[in-house]
Amino acid sequence: MSQGVEFNRLMLEMRSMQMEAMAKQKPPAISAPEPGAPSFSEMLGQAVGKVSETQQASNQLATAFEMGQGGVDITDVMIASQKASVSFQAMTQVRNKLVQAYQDIMQMPV
After folding, report:
1. NCBIfam families this protein is in (predicted)?
2. In the chain, how many domains are there?
3. Which residue in 31, 52, 59, 108 has a CA-CA distance of 20 to 30 Å to 67?
4. Residue span of the structural domain in which 91 resides
5. CA 13, chain centre distance (Å)
6. CA 28/CA 78 separation, integer angstroms
7. Does any domain span residue 97?
8. Is 100 within a domain?
9. Has residue 60 been placed in a domain?
10. pLDDT tens, 43-90?
């Protein structure tokens, strides 16, 4: 229950900060992105690619350990496995936040 209260308080603070920032600024002119700057979709694609690479490296290390290849330590396998798990969980949370933001935008009155 306290997490819900904490989340609501955080959202209220963020909204008040947004309102203050919007009141202080004039509407920004829509400008073209800087040349060479990656777009949001490119950045997201790169992040997904890195998560995939981390998982593949973890699987390769685990397979090498299971096959008994020399130089592969169980601690390295476990660390790689945890890195892959954490990166996947983080990507899942980013996806959840993006979906929630999309739903919030779609529910806004026009």
Report:
1. fliE (TIGR00205)
2. 1
3. 52
4. 74-109
5. 22
6. 49
7. yes
8. yes
9. no
10. 889 999 999 999 999 999 999 999 998 888 999 999 999 999 999 999
